[in-house]
Design a protein that fits this description.
- The protein is α/β, with parallel strands linked by helices and 229 residues long.
- The longest helix has 17 residues, at 212-228.
- The strands form three sheets. Strands 5-4-1-6-10-7-11 form a seven-stranded mixed sheet, with helices on both faces.
- It has helices at residues 33-44, 59-68, 84-93, 114-127, 168-177, 186-191, 212-228; strands at residues 4-9, 27-28, 31-32, 49-54, 76-79, 101-106, 129-135, 140-143, 149-152, 158-167, 199-201.
- The chain has seven helices and eleven strands.
- The chain is globular and about 55 Å long.
- The chain has one domain: Spore Coat Polysaccharide Biosynthesis Protein SpsA, Chain A (Alpha-Beta Complex).
- The protein is 34% helix and 24% strand.
- Helix 1 (33-44) crosses helix 4 (114-127).
- Bound molecules: cytidine-5'-triphosphate (CTP) and the ligand C[C@](O)(CO)[C@H](O)COP(=O)(O)O.
- Residues 9-16, 24, 53, 80-84, 87, 106-108, 208, 210 line the site of cytidine-5'-triphosphate.
Length: 229
């Protein structure tokens, strides 16, 4: 039995993407987004307990999709909630008792690198958490409520990705005691307990597929990965 798990959250509806099929099921270079994401974690270590959080109404659709694509990577399905926070909490509640480390990852980030996943488990094992972030390339400005804007030094900011990997005992406690559910990521829930998060470098291709133009970029990244092999 492994002591590592990955919760791939895909319980959303993809309203910013639009379209009749939710973005997590759309094919990129001929393979549905979620199958790509599951495959990366499986390639890192086939013994990772893979938990896929989906809207409960989509379970049978997903099973049909797996049959259609002959997708055989073992994983467990867990029902999502009304918010990302609730979907992650449902995933955490489904962990086996022997699991010591858990990576929480957006199902719609299929281009996370194996190196980032490996490092996130190593660093979380040592420090309690490992949060993938990348530096900003553009300048930034902070907006105020009265319509003004101010310069901010970009060296003090990072863009936050997933995976966000944690020691299970700590992240389960953080989610169990947290009342506020508007947090947009898991690092913030952890930090809300007074624990400092540890940042690691993410990979630039690890985009969160969110809007229609991201699908073009995703096709480009997938083609680049194929030609690099
Ligand atoms: N109730 C929810 C909402 C979101 N997510 C997941 O959290 C990840 C990041 O969320 P986002 O990109 O915002 O996805 P959606 O909520 O589907 O998109 P939108 O906000 O455009 O509706 C996605 O993999 C999404 O499926 C989830 O598991 N459960
Ligand atoms: C978790 C996340 O992907 C980190 O950048 C992000 O906060 C998710 O935000 P969303 O509004 O749920 O897409």
């Amino acid at each position: 039995m492994t002591n590592k798990a990955a919760i791939l959250v895909a319980g959303g509806r993809g309203t910013r993407m639009g379209g009749p099929v939710a973005k997590q099921y759309l094919p990129v270079a001929g393979k549905p987004v979620l199958m790509r994401t599951l495959s990366v974690f499986y390639q890192v270590d086939p013994s990772i307990d893979l938990i896929l959080v989906l809207p409960e109404n989509d379970f049978s659709y997903w099973e049909e999709l797996c049959a259609e694509y002959k997708f055989s990577i073992p994983h467990r399905l867990v029902a999502g909630g009304n918010s990302r926070f609730q979907s992650v909490r449902n995933g955490l509640n489904s962990l086996n008792f022997e699991t010591k480390l858990v990576a929480v990852h957006d199902g719609v980030r299929p281009f996370v690198s194996q190196a980032v996943i490996e490092e996130s488990f190593e660093v979380a094992d040592l420090n309690g958490s490992a949060i993938a972030v990348i530096s900003l390339k553009d300048s930034i400005r902070k907006l105020t409520d009265d319509g003004k804007s101010f310069y901010e030094e970009r060296q003090y900011f990072r863009l936050v990705q997933t995976p966000q990997t944690f020691q299970v005992e700590k992240i389960k406690k953080a989610f169990a005691v947290t009342e506020l559910q508007q947090f947009t990521d898991d690092a913030t829930v952890y930090e809300n307990q007074g624990w400092q998060v540890t940042l690691i470098s993410g990979n630039a291709d690890n985009i969160k597929i969110t809007t229609p133009e991201d699908m073009d970029y995703a096709e480009y990244i997938a083609a680049k990965q194929m030609s690099d092999r």
